[in-house]
Amino acid sequence: MPGSAEPPRPGESSMTVIVPTLMEAEAIGLVLDELLQHGYRNVIVVDGGSTDGTREIAASKGVKVVTQPGRGKADAVRYGISLADTELVAVMDGDYTYPAYELQKLYRQALQGYDLVIGKRVPDPGAQPAAFKLGNKLLTTFFNILFGTHLSDVLSGMYIVRKEALSNALFEMKGFSVESEIAAHIAATTGKIAEVPIRYRKRVGRKKLGKLAGVRIAVDMLRLAWRYNPLFLITGTAALMLVPGLAIAAWVGYRYIFLGVSHFVWGIIAIVLTAVGFVALLLAMLAIYLKHMELRITRAIQALREQPPSKAARRAAQPEEEPQSQATPQTPPTS
């Protein structure tokens, strides 16, 4: 349209695209062709030791291809981010499920000041089995409970992250837990996370996500919660005592009221469990409040650092000039 502003596009100096691969010979050519077609030339393919020609196909496209240290997707993503020399780093799987043109949406959102922009998958018909949809929903809900976020797809394989925001990330998780680790770090340090709906296509090639991958990711989320907010994890777990406490109390009450049977010991156990669980629940709520306060203070400090100095501050920083004393001419003595 005449007069409409052209949406910003990431240049080679502003964003690097990382594509972790392992045995993706069927898809990597399609992925790279699509990236190059949409103008993304600062691309690094991080291969995990493929023996099916993935590296050779990627190299034939003229992009940078490196072999990752270690094993698994987490090591590939960590190594790729370390190689990037741009402020923003995009990560996308090499199985052709994520269209390259969707990166433009994520990039525009990242320019609004977010440290992590996640592509929320909207699957094509048949692109994602029902079991995977359910597992992803459960894991994302579990993540939201642990970290106080409101995400819809924490495990998406397409996202843009600000490299500086990961400067002190430990990257201890392995395999497919890398996405939840990056999201946990940003949620616990700056909280600047956004989501953008993107298309999700049927993958090309075989799946690598095993049946027990979801369990491992859930366990890693607990480990991340222990690292970033241990008080909430402890008190939140202790608050679960409310469930058996109230259940036992209901059973004791029913037996006493309708059957006239007293259970003093079980009644004491119910009171103790309920009281401990209730206090732990209050402490868990306090832990969430303190974490949100920490984030607000961190954002305020960062905003102050980013503000340009005022005129008064600039004048105060300048060294004061000493006034030059004017010499008084002396009258020569008369003889």
Descriptive notes:
By secondary structure, the chain is of the alpha/beta class. The chain folds into two domains: 214 residues, Spore Coat Polysaccharide Biosynthesis Protein SpsA, Chain A, CATH 3.90.550; 70 residues. Helix content is 48%, strand content 12%. It has a seven-stranded mixed β-sheet with strand order 3-2-1-4-6-5-7, with helices on both faces. Strand 2, helix 2 and strand 3 form a beta-alpha-beta unit. Helix 6 runs parallel beside helix 7. The longest helix has 43 residues. The N terminus is likely disordered.
Short summary of the structure?
48% of the residues lie in helices and 12% in strands.
Q: How would you characterize the largest beta sheet?
A: 7 strands, mixed
**Morphology call:** globular
The CATH class of the largest domain: Alpha Beta
- For the terminal residues, how far apart are their CA atoms? 95 Å
Number of individual domains = 2
Quaternary state, please? single chain
